[in-house]
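Data availability (excerpt). The following record was deposited with the supplementary files.
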Amino acid sequence: MRARFQADADLDGRVIRGLLRAAPGVDIRTANDAGLAGLEDSEVLQIAADAGRILVSQDRRTMPVHFKRFVAGAQSPGVILLREAIPISTAIEELALIWSASQAAEWIDRLIWIPL
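Predicted structure:
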């Protein structure tokens, strides 16, 4: 099964829009659609896990710590963090590549940074 994404509330909307243009079949749920605004990282991770979606975030400061705590007691579909100052086009290209060239099971309990 292909990866499905969950955008965090802090993810730049240009990444989502560009990804949908670059890979029209990609399954990415917005933070608004998932009701993530104002939630704690642990709650966001749980919502993404319950939906079987890899969380895509730009929360480099706190998300890695919360992810580590989360996977200590539960399974996560994974987290993709965008590095600081990553060009929007690079984020779009790498997310499209992850979606098209891998399976969801490859990302379970993994936290990766892009660019790779």
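Summary of structural features: The chain has one domain: 5-114.
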